[in-house]
Amino acid sequence: MREDGQVSFWPAPHIEVPVHATVTLPGSKSITNRALILAALADGPSTLTGALRSRDTDLMIAALRALGTEIVGDAETLEVTPAPLHSAAVDCGLAGTIMRFLPPAAALATGDVAFFGDEQARHRPLSTILDALRSLGLDIEGDALPFVVHGTGTLRGGEVTIDASGSSQFVSGLLLSAARFEQGITVNHSGGVLPSMPHIEMTVEMLRRADVAVTTPSDVRGAQTWTVAPGPIRAVDWEIEPDLSNATPFLAAAAVTGGEVSVPMWPRGTTQPGDVIREILVRMGAEARVFDGILTVRGPERLAGIDIDLHDVGELTPTVAALAALADSPSVLRGIAHLRGHETDRLAALSAEINRLGGNVTETADGLEIVPAPLHGGQWHSYADHRMATAGAILGLRVPGIEIEDIGTTAKTLPTFVALWEQMLAPALSGEGVAR
């Protein structure tokens, strides 16, 4: 959106030659925002190195500062010093990690904490976590944004049963602050299959690094349970991994152009869902190898379709849908009904936008069926969703004339997206292999 309120469109670069580039990505949003909360509730100062600076993480920093936490640093290194939390106003923007992770921490504040956010955020589901906190002894006014947490400086905690099938963030949000509750917490999931389990595993791993006792038994019926014991959260100096989900559009560029893209500092072991992109690209015909900490993807001559359950890695769906639309055989993306509650209804958005360009996408009960069809240029709407915008950029590499609405929405998790995208294409640009 331009300053004058008019909708802006970015002409996606179209390339006629293979991409060859190395792209260095900033830190993980998911890890950064979890580390910020743990540092704010810790028993001493912490340092975050390699932190992502984006709209979502800057909003988290601003929220914690408003609550009383001292956070020093304007770049990727942040010094966090805990302090008693107090009343504040919290702007969630469109960030699920704020609207679902901070209300449990706000229970530990003395005074009212008012939460508000973007217009689109008012439609994101929140009642699951707000009702859970009410059952644990917290007084909350409202069931969706805007709402007010009436903090008393403490929370009883205890056992709660929720249906987290709509978002793994409901579980993570409860677990992150629970060590500071009087009784800790036991969270029982009762409902449909949990989406994005790697994100819950990320939360558990980070809690354990902070010396928080977390147990994760399952009962005979397969219900999932997490217990966090009450106690201190140890201060940890966090080194943030690169954001692997933000890497996926750049790796996809290699796949769709038959080129080669390398991403340095790829972790050997990680809980980030973005790591699954390696398997997906290989199944679609590309090569992917990690050597000396560098992931290199080499694209095939022809990209194959894929039948895949993306339930645990739903955030990769826009990238995979763009790849599937450019493949030479049909694809089925399953297990992702929960994406209807993300920044936008991603299933409806992807089918509408790909079909607007001449594609053949059918929305199913839990996913998308994509039959390759000749695509043409046109406007690609982002729906204020960063991953919708980057999906349009992938298609633009192969389809001339695509204009992406509000490419600036990528600032949610990757403010430098346009610069990195154009740097990746610079060698081809110099060889006159790119058209705008």
> Could you report the average pLDDT, rounded to the nearest whole number?
94
Total domain units: 2
Q: Classify the secondary structure makeup into a structural class.
A: alpha/beta
* Count of discrete alpha- or pi-helical segments spanning 4 or more residues: 13
Describe this structure in words.
By secondary structure, this protein is α/β, with parallel strands linked by helices. It has two domains: 209 residues, Alpha-beta prism (UDP-n-acetylglucosamine1-carboxyvinyl-transferase, Chain), CATH 3.65.10.10; 199 residues, Enolpyruvate transferase domain (UDP-n-acetylglucosamine1-carboxyvinyl-transferase, Chain). It contains 13 helices and 25 strands. The strands form seven sheets. The chain has a four-stranded mixed beta sheet. Strands 5-6-4-15 form a four-stranded mixed beta sheet, covered by helices on one side. A hairpin with an 8-residue loop joins strand 13 and strand 14. The radius of gyration is 22 Å and the shape is globular. The two termini are 20 Å apart. The mean pLDDT is 94.
Using brief descriptors, characterize the structure shown.
alpha/beta, UDP-n-acetylglucosamine1-carboxyvinyl-transferase, Chain, four-stranded mixed β-sheet, 2 domains, 436 residues, 13 helices
In short:
InterPro entries: Enolpyruvate_Tfrase_dom (IPR001986), Enolpyruvate_Tfrase_sf (IPR036968), EPSP_synthase (IPR006264), EPSP_synthase_CS (IPR023193), RNA3'P_cycl/enolpyr_Trfase_a/b (IPR013792). The protein has 436 residues and is α/β, with parallel strands linked by helices. The protein contains 13 helices and 25 strands.
